Amino acid sequence: MELLDGKKLRTEILAKIKSEVTLLSFQPIFCDILVGNDPSSAQYVKMKAKTAESVGIKFHNANFPTSITTGELVEEIKTLNKIKNMCGIIVQLPLPEHLDKRAILDAIDPHLDVDCLGTSASAEFYSGLTAGGIGFPTALACMALLDSLNLNLKGKILVVLGQGELVGRPTAALLRYRGLTYLNISSKTENKAYLLRQADIVISGMGKGKHITGNMIKDGAVIIDAGTSESEGGIVGDVDLESVKNIASHVSPVPGGVGPVTVAMLLNNVLNVAKKLKQ
């Protein structure tokens, strides 16, 4: 079994983004809105800021106190939408419970919604209008890892596990946009164990720690693991790596697989917005 190196792929994608950013006539701006002072959220935003700056994308700080109201934050976002050369705005989740997440996400200009979590941006993605452009970063990361293997996917049996907002549904849509046949397995699917064992390629976003074991998959299967769960103080994926190591041909590990590539694909979305702005 070969582990897919997400960090290596991230480095390659970021290098390409950096080279394309230098060709722009302006410096694109990216903003990750942070409400409150949750340490893990703040650290994640800091990492994205550092990564953005490393490829020539300017990071715009937008930190607000937990006491901010939904109405106030919506107005702040409307102001951010109007900043010259703004090419991407996202909201660091989760938000404090008193805030209306839907109203806040929908306040982002759909053309700047590089997480695709707003109603309009999401609808545009699922209509196929943004195929090949802006998309859900985690789903794009799954596809980037799969593409790194240079497999001929035509005729392969592809299975997507889960129908979640960030992985299952958008990844299935990306496969559909490519004209690929796939099965989307959920908890309600009949004969799911049998169907999973037929899969040449499995993309999983269930969030069930070490759920996929060797006896559940086909010999030589490729598994893209986008699931994350907490276990004994650490993060694990949907795949039990020890169990599948002599059966699967390739697996993306957690951590170190889809995660690193997701941030790169987020910034690639920012770049794609910048290219359209240039036009």
Automatic annotation (TrEMBL):
Keywords of this entry: Amino-acid biosynthesis, Histidine biosynthesis, Hydrolase, Methionine biosynthesis, Multifunctional enzyme, NADP, One-carbon metabolism, Oxidoreductase, Purine biosynthesis
Binding site for NADP(+): 162-164, 228
Pathway: One-carbon metabolism; tetrahydrofolate interconversion
EC numbers: 1.5.1.5, 3.5.4.9
Keyword DNA damage: no
Tetrahydrofolate dehydrogenase/cyclohydrolase catalytic domain sequence ranges: 4-115
GO-annotated biological processes: L-histidine biosynthetic process; methionine biosynthetic process; purine nucleobase biosynthetic process; purine nucleotide biosynthetic process; tetrahydrofolate interconversion
GO molecular function: methenyltetrahydrofolate cyclohydrolase activity; methylenetetrahydrofolate dehydrogenase (NAD+) activity; methylenetetrahydrofolate dehydrogenase (NADP+) activity
GO CC term, one of those recorded: cytosol
Domain Tetrahydrofolate dehydrogenase/cyclohydrolase NAD(P)-binding: 138-276
Alphabetized InterPro entries for the sequence: Aminoacid_DH-like_N_sf, NAD(P)-bd_dom_sf, THF_DH/CycHdrlase, THF_DH/CycHdrlase_cat_dom, THF_DH/CycHdrlase_NAD-bd_dom
Presence of keyword Cell inner membrane: no
Domain of life: Bacteria
Role according to the record: Catalyzes the oxidation of 5,10-methylenetetrahydrofolate to 5,10-methenyltetrahydrofolate and then the hydrolysis of 5,10-methenyltetrahydrofolate to 10-formyltetrahydrofolate.
Stored HAMAP family: THF_DHG_CYH
Protein family per UniProt: Belongs to the tetrahydrofolate dehydrogenase/cyclohydrolase family.
Oligomeric form and interacting partners: Homodimer.
Protein name: Bifunctional protein FolD
Underlying gene: folD
